[in-house]
Design brief:
The chain has 20 helices and 15 strands. With 564 residues, the protein is α/β, with parallel strands linked by helices.
């Protein structure tokens, strides 16, 4: 769960700290107060794309930091694989900085990280449902992902996709094998030249770093030698003066003689003895260092020409020696295939046929499991929609056989009928905004039972609904929050009243700028805010009374589900 959020200079939030509780949490406030800024900030922590537009006007950078608690062992595994320090059972701290020039920085537990790593971790902790999900649900790709998520067929899909990728690669090689002979010869010449050029270069991994270090040493050799000799003379002395070693011996001899007459001098002897020992050790190291520099010769012409060669190949192919050597291996393999094109063509044809059979077998297995999952989803979605006052809705997951694609051998599409007697049609042909919100919620509730996401965030899931339908959504979110943390941004009093914790987002002019603020409300604060939602800017006694009734109803509902 998300326990804390710190926001600096994101839009109109200049310095905001929010502590979050467990259970069902709602954010309320007037339009434009800054509720969406909180969602934008959490989105940044989940690795979503950043934008310089988020940086507060007049500031150089923005910053957001969040703390989460999780018990997911996979997350600890990912942290360990990437060298991120952590302690099981303690919070994980994520932060993201955005500069006004668009550059961004990521840290996890105070160690530098990538947005990709941030995304892979936070996708297992936080799930955000926003307005764009109402568009995503219209996509058949989303429908397939829902079925795979519910049926836990992602691994099977991954195996199928692996076979598909190999099959398509084999078809591509077959196609190339049929290429015109003159083009074949041109390609062979190009590959031969590439192989010869990289082979002759004989690149070793890490060689560029070693050569750069040698060049830097050569360029600074005069300073290195000068300062190493100075250190040696200061410690060991020269023909014209005594060094620190000799002077320390003199001081030690003098204090030893003096100690016969002075206890104070005697007490200084152990410390001076220790200084002498340290000076002797340092002197030996410096002498060795000077000797090594004296004997070292750097062929700077070789270093420079070698670096020029490496950099030219990096610009021509890929920017790493490891990548260039991989280009060599791939080119050698490709040339071998071309040189044995007739023989390989037969082998490739046979391989393609075998892969196609494997692809169909894997695809059928995937399709069968998907269809079984789909039947359960249909039943559960209809039950959930009935709870959300859409009891007359017919919902079906349609499967159409297609030629194999990277996603499978069937096209999966959600069909719906919102009125009795009306035929089933695709969602985008029938469903309204309010209906889409409830369908999304129904799917989220069902899928929540199959994943371990600890925090779910709903950005205005109640769009297009009101009255008893709004209360049904509130009840659904309350139930969902029994096993995880659930956030909702809402403008409806029923939703706000059913929350365990309510936060008011407001804005005010301070000095010469507008600033947004977040406040955790107590019972009286909640009553006033819900009354404002009911009656508008002028809060009436009847609105306050209605707000209190809603809060009591929400509290009673909460007690009921906790005791059930």
């Amino acid at each position: 769960m998300l326990s804390r959020l710190h926001i600096e200079n994101i839009a109109i939030m200049d310095n905001t700290d929010i502590e979050f509780d467990k259970g069902f949490l709602v954010l309320t406030g007037e339009t434009g107060a800054g509720k969406s800024i909180i969602i934008d900030s959490i989105n940044l922590l989940t690795g979503e794309r950043s934008s310089r537009e988020l940086v507060r006007y007049g500031e150089n950078k923005a910053f957001v930091e969040g703390s989460v608690f999780t018990s997911d062992p996979k997350i600890y595994e990912i942290l360990e694989e990437n060298g991120i320090p952590y302690y099981e059972g303690e919070e994980i701290v994520f932060s993201r900085e955005i500069n006004a020039d668009g550059r961004t920085g990521v840290r996890i537990n105070n160690k530098s990280a990538t947005t990709g790593l941030l995304r892979s971790i936070c996708s297992r902790i936080i799930n955000i449902h926003g307005q764009n999900d109402n568009q995503a649900i219209l996509s058949t790709d989303f429908h397939g992902d829902c079925v795979d998520g519910f049926g836990k067929t992602q691994e099977l899909k991954k195996e199928y996709s692996s076979v598909y990728t190999e099959y398509k690669s084999t078809l591509k090689l077959l196609d190339e094998a049929d290429t015109d002979e003159s083009l074949m010869l041109q390609k062979k010449d190009m590959l031969s030249f590439k192989i010869e050029e990289i082979t002759n270069a004989d690149l070793k991994e890490g060689e560029d770093e070693e050569l750069t270090e040698l060049r830097n040493k050569f360029l600074n050799m005069e300073k290195v030698m000068e300062n190493s000799y100075r250190a040696k003379e200061a410690l060991c002395g020269s023909d014209s003066f005594d060094g620190a070693k000799s002077l320390t011996d003199t001081a030690l001899d003098a204090l030893t003689r003096l100690s016969e007459f002075s206890e104070q001098a005697k007490s200084l002897l152990p410390g001076l003895e220790e200084v002498k020992d340290k000076l002797w050790d340092i002197s030996e190291t410096v002498i060795d260092m000077v000797s090594s520099f004296d004997g070292e010769e750097i062929d700077i012409n070789y270093v420079e020409s070698r670096l020029d060669l490496i950099n030219r190949l990096k610009r021509k192919y890929v920017p790493t020696i490891e990548g260039i050597n991989e280009v060599l291996r791939q080119s050698q393999a490709e040339l071998e295939l071309l040189e044995n094109s007739d023989k390989n063509k037969e082998e490739l044809q046979k391989k393609a046929e075998e892969l196609y059979k494997r692809l169909l077998k894997s695809g059928k297995e995937l399709s069968e499991k998907r269809r079984k999952s789909a039947a359960l989803i249909e039943k559960e979605v209809k039950a959930q929609l009935a709870d959300l006052e859409m009891g007359g809705v017919e919902f079906k997951i349609d499967f159409q056989d297609i030629e194999p694609t990277s996603k499978g051998i069937d096209k999966i599409e959600f069909l719906i009928s919102t009125n009795k007697g009306q035929g089933l049609k695709p969602l985008n042909k029938i469903a309204s905004g309010g209906e889409l919100s409830r369908i999304i919620l129904a799917l989220k509730v069902i899928l929540a039972e199959t994943d371990s996401v600890g925090t779910m965030i709903f950005d205005e899931v109640d769009t297009g609904v009101s009255g008893s339908a709004a209360q049904r959504i509130a009840e659904k979110l309350k139930l969902l929050s029994q096993n995880r943390q659930v956030f909702a941004i809402t403008h409806l009093p029923q939703m706000a009243a059913f929350a365990d914790t309510q936060y008011l987002v407001s804005k005010a002019v301070k000095g010469d700028k507008t600033v947004s603020d977040v406040q955790k409300l107590d019972f009286e604060g909640r009553k006033k805010e819900i009354a404002r939602i009911i009656s508008g800017s002028r809060v009436t006694e009847s609105a306050l009374s209605a707000a209190e009734e809603l809060l009591m109803a929400g509290e009673e509902y909460g007690k009921g589900i906790r005791n059930s």
